[in-house]
Design a protein that fits this description.
By secondary structure, the chain is mostly helical. The chain is built from 6 helices and 3 strands; from the N terminus they run αββαβαααα. β1 (32-34) and β2 (39-40) form a beta hairpin. It is extended and about 55 Å long.
């Protein structure tokens, strides 16, 4: 199963992005687009997105214009299938509607697909997520998670701004 977003950034990235904006007063190129869809570095666009106000801009789509087209297509399919929001739908809250698709491998002649996928993946020295799997395996063997100090401190600072106490 795959569950993903077509945005270049997702909720798990917000803390580090907000801290960058707070620290530097602007964002790195390619993170947000203004309301005309032009790449921008304006931290106020990020602050708006974080407060659920998308009137001044948005996150850049994953994969540029091709990713934008895929995201819009999926939004329309999900909206049409669920009666949820897409486009200018008065009275519909943003994000209403979800679609789960499941396909039988038999429909696609996928006999032996697992072995073919394994054979294909053996050609590569690495793959996306391989580093994460290695970290998870090491953490499971140690019985604890070694969190990067900089990220941990960043989370503590963000929590302190929201009056969340670290213990």
């Amino acid at each position: 199963m795959f569950d993903g977003s077509f945005g270049a950034y997702s909720r798990h990235s917000f803390v580090s992005l907000k801290e960058q904006a707070d620290r530097e007063g602007e964002l790195a190129p390619g993170i947000v687009l203004d309301k005309q869809g032009i790449p921008a570095r304006d931290a106020d666009i990020l602050y708006g997105i974080l407060s659920e106000d998308r009137s001044n801009g948005s996150f850049a789509p994953l994969g540029g214009m091709k990713g934008l087209g895929m995201a819009m297509g999926m939004e329309m399919i999900a909206g049409a299938l669920t009666g949820g929001f897409f486009g200018d739908a008065p009275g519909k809250p943003w994000g209403e509607g979800a679609v789960l698709m499941a396909f039988s491998p038999k429909l696609f002649g996928a006999a032996g697909m697992v072995e073919r996928a394994r054979s294909y993946l053996r050609r590569f020295d690495g793959y996306p997520g391989q580093h994460s799997f290695a970290i998870r395996k090491a953490a499971m063997e140690r019985g604890e998670l070694a969190y990067p100090a900089e990220s941990f401190e960043s989370l503590k600072r963000a929590g302190a701004k929201s009056y969340v106490e670290y213990r």
